[in-house]
Amino acid sequence: MQVEYSHTLSSHERAHIISQVILHDRAAVGATTPKLIDFGARIEGTLVGGVCGRIELRRLFVEYLWVESRYRGNGIGTQLLKAVEYAASARGCRECQIESLSVATAHIYIARGYRVMYRLPDYIPGLSLIVLVKQL
Fold first, then answer.
1. Within a domain: residue 5?
2. How many domains does the chain contain in total?
3. 132, pLDDT greater than 90
4. Which PROSITE patterns match (predicted)?
5. d(C-alpha 64, C-alpha 50), whole Å
6. Which of 53, 75, 87, 96 is the residue whose CA sits 20 to 30 A from 6?
7. Structural domain span for residue 56
8. What phi, psi does 102 have (nearest 5°)?
């Protein structure tokens, strides 16, 4: 048997790998293909913030939440987070999970009802991984 290795995958190959992991590891607990959920915030048509996540097993996983630096502190991130939480709750989610490498950002989530479930010091040298969860 000769195996070839490559450093790139097509989008179809990537999707196949993900589906096989779900089939193998998650099917036993009823998981299906995660459903993507995204929201954007625009000012005069220009994207200034957004949130990207996935829904699986009645849990919302917020993967990315971003606001353009000059617009931070104006509630845009809070509104994006509320929107994705509300939409996920309407789709049957009971919890939301978000991870942060920033203690300051984790405190923002805590102020919005999240609780720290786990902290892994030096996840990346000098940064801790903080996993937070909120009941929806």
1. no
2. 1
3. yes
4. GNAT
5. 8
6. 53
7. 39-135
8. -115, 125
